[in-house]
Structure formats: C-alpha cells, structure tokens
C-alpha cells in the first residue's frame, strides 16, 4: 500500500513540475516524451506491485463494457453507419444547413457533425470534425466550436445502458437525455460568440436553391458514389462498429484499472472528502461522492457507482448528469487522440465540459420535477425536513430558463437582422 502511495506521489509531482525538467533536456518535444515515459513507467510499477487490484479493475471494466456498453451501442452504431453509407445523414445535414450559421456560427457541413454527434455519441463528433478540418472545410475556430458541443453520450447509452441497465427504470431515460442534449445545445448557442473575429472565415455566396432540393441532390450524390453492394455495406458497418466498440472497451478497461489503483491508495476517498466539504452542506449524500470522483476519470464506472449508491433518486440523476456531461478523462483522452493530427486545441473542449456539467445538473432537476409523478410525494416528504438541497434545484432551474430566454431572444434578433439586411 505505502509503495503504491509513493508511486502516486511521484506521478503527481511529475505532473505538477512537468515544465521544470530542464536539467535533462532543453528540447521541448523530448521533454514531453520523457514526461509521459516516466508516467507510464510509474503506472506500470504500480500495476506490478498490485496485480490483484489491476485484475479487479480490468474485470470491472470488461464486465461493464460487455454487459452494458456493447449490447446497448452495437445495434445503434451499425444503423448509424448504414445511414451514413446510404446518404441519409448527408441528406439531414444539408437540410439543416440554413440553421447552422445563425444558430451556432458554423458552416453547413457542421450540420453533419451535429447529426452524427447527437445520434452516435462521443468521440464520433470529434472524429468527423477532425476530418472536416483536415479537408479545410471549416476553420480552426469553427472546428473547436463543433468539438465542444457535438460530443455527447450516445442516446442508447442513456436510454438503455443507464436508465434500464443501471437504474432499472426506463422512464428516467428521457429525463437524462433531455437534460444532456439541452445543456449541450445551450452551449452551442453560447459558443457562436467564441472567436467572432475569425481570421480564416470567408463568407460564401448565398445559393438561390431550396434546402430540400440541395438535400436530395446530396443524397443522390452519395448514392452514386457508393460502389459497394448492400451486403458489403452491411459487413463493413458491422466491422467498423465492432472496431469502434473495441477501442471504447480498451479505454474503459484501462481507466477502470486506474480507478482501482487510485482507490487502493486512498486517492479517490481523499478527493471525495474534499468534494464533500462543498456538496454535503448542499444536501448531497456522502454515498454519491466516490461515484462522482470515479466519474471524473471514467464515465461508465462513475454512472454505475452512482446508480448503486444509497442517495435519493434525484441526487443519483444529478450526479449521473454531471458525470455524463463531463464525460470523464477517458473520453477526453479519446478526443485528444482523434484531433492530434490537426491544429484543433483541447482547451475550449475541456472548459465547456465544466459548463456542460453545471447546465446538465440544472436541466436534470428541472425536467425531473416537471415530468416525474413521484417527485410530488418526495417533495412533500422533504417539506418536513427541508434543506438547502430542497430549494437549490428550483433556483438553478429558474436560472436555466432565464439563460434560455436570453439566448433565444438574442438568436431571434440576429436572424431578424440578417433577414432585414438581406432584403435591402
């Protein structure tokens, strides 16, 4: 135990003093490579010292992937790949093109990223955005906007894996999904003001062709370019989906092992205790704190722990919303690996995950109290022993509604101005 704790201290020290490794080399790239090499060696030593912990974490990750993630995502990924191959996603994306620039300040091709990102889950949105950027179909600023609000949890993961597989209540799926998507769409509208003076932006001439005609034209173009037979398309869809799920399973397993090692050193409990200093006075149960801490690293493990906690249902949903919005360092690592060959920066993506987590908590409380019949009984029961938690969600919901009203009004004004100046 104490050896593993020392290794953890070494790893944290390396992260803190990363920029001060000048005594070994003056080359920044070599210094970066040396830093990661030492981190990997440190983690490898921790795995050698605690093989039982590593095995337990690996079993947990593989079970979560095989029993929950694989059956819930595989059919959806196959269907998404088929829709992409037959041009339906391009059709929907082109049809949404007139809305993308005034709403999100991204080009029309961003509608394709939006459609896939909100139906396939992360990191698919980042993968397609990186492809658009490599082909110079969008600027770096626009790519950073797209990456920041089109990477969501898969709808089947929320509707099937979380609500059915973890919470055993399919009625909670729409609440989780609505809060998750609404908060990210709110971020997308806010991000339209990010990097407003884009030096790469070139205004394209407006085409006098109806969006529906262009959508069908794009659909037929994709169909004419497709030379594979339906059987080949189906086989490729299954192969690509299984490959993506294996990649996801590898990240889930590795970070599940990391979580177990951090638990063994007491690091998870230490961070949970620090979070408790802020969350427990707000009325949160201490049983959700380890789940929240684990979810900061790997979202599937965190949501599973949150669903098994002894907290109230509303607190479980709030913690799950925060974890899904933050996505976990595992998803961050996947996004970073996808955009590594482009000039897209990670800073905005990480910052917007914090904003997404806050907004998701707000919307979860609002939608839960709005749609759940069991909430009224719970609120009556809480009235006998009120706490700050009883009133905080209502205040947050009001704040979210005000924010939506402001954003909707500003967007409507921008659309009106564009129409007026266009008609002049």
Order of helices and strands: HHHHHHHHHHHHHHHHHHHH
Strand content: under 5%
Helical proportion? over 70%
Q: Structural class given helices, strands, pairing?
A: mainly alpha
What gap, in angstroms, lies between the N and C termini? 74 Å
Topology:
Layout: H1 2-16, H2 28-49, H3 51-85, H4 88-95, H5 97-104, H6 110-120, H7 124-134, H8 140-149, H9 155-166, H10 173-190, H11 211-225, H12 230-265, H13 267-279, H14 289-295, H15 299-307, H16 313-326, H17 328-338, H18 347-371, H19 374-383, H20 388-423
Search tags:
mainly alpha; 77% helix; 2 domains; 424 residues
Please characterize this protein's 3D structure.
The protein has two domains: 1-49; 50-195 and 208-372 and 388-423, no CATH class. Residues 378-403 and 420-424 have low confidence and may be disordered. By secondary structure, the chain is mainly alpha-helical. It contains 20 helices and no strands. The relative contact order is 0.11.
Question: Can you describe this structure in just a few lines?
Answer:
The protein has 424 residues and is mainly alpha-helical.
């Amino acid at each position: 135990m104490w050896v593993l704790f020392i290794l953890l201290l070494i790893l944290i020290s390396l992260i803190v003093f990363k920029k001060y490794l000048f005594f070994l080399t003056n080359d920044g790239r070599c210094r970066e490579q040396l830093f990661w090499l030492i981190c990997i060696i440190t983690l490898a030593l921790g795995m050698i010292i605690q093989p039982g912990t590593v095995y337990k974490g690996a079993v947990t990750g593989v079970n979560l992937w095989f029993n929950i993630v694989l059956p819930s995502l595989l059919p959806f990924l196959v269907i998404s790949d088929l829709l992409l191959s037959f041009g339906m996603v391009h059709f929907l994306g082109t049809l949404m093109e007139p809305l993308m620039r005034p709403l999100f300040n991204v080009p029309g091709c961003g509608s394709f990223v939006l459609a896939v990102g909100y139906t396939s889950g992360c990191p698919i949105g980042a993968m397609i955005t990186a492809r658009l950027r490599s082909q110079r179909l969008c600027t770096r600023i626009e790519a950073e906007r797209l990456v920041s609000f089109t990477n969501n949890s898969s709808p089947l993961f929320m509707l099937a894996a979380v609500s059915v597989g973890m919470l055993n209540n399919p009625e909670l799926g729409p609440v989780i999904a609505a809060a998750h998507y609404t908060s990210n769409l709110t971020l997308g509208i806010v991000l339209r003001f990010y990097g407003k003076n884009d030096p790469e932006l070139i205004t394209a001439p407006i085409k006098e062709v109806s969006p529906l005609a262009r959508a069908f034209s794009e659909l037929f173009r994709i169909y004419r370019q497709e030379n594979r037979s339906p059987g080949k398309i189906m086989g490729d869809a299954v192969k690509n989906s299984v490959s993506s799920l294996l990649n996801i399973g590898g990240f889930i397993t590795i970070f599940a092992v990391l979580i177990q090692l951090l638990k063994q050193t007491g690091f998870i409990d230490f961070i949970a205790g620090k979070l408790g200093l802020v969350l427990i006075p707000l009325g949160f149960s201490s049983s959700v704190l380890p789940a929240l801490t684990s979810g900061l690293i790997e979202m599937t493990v965190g949501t599973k722990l949150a669903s098994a906690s002894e907290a109230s249902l509303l607190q479980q949903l709030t913690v799950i919303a925060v974890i899904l919005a933050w996505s976990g360092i595992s998803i961050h690592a996947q996004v970073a690996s996808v955009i590594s060959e482009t000039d897209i920066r990670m800073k905005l993506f990480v910052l917007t995950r914090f904003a997404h987590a806050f907004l998701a908590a707000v919307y979860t409380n609002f939608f839960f109290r709005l749609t759940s019949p069991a909430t009224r009984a719970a609120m009556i029961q809480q009235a006998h022993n009120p706490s700050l938690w009883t009133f905080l969600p209502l205040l947050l919901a009001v704040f979210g509604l005000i924010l939506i009203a402001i954003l909707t009004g500003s967007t409507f004004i921008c659309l009106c101005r564009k129409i007026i100046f266009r008609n002049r």
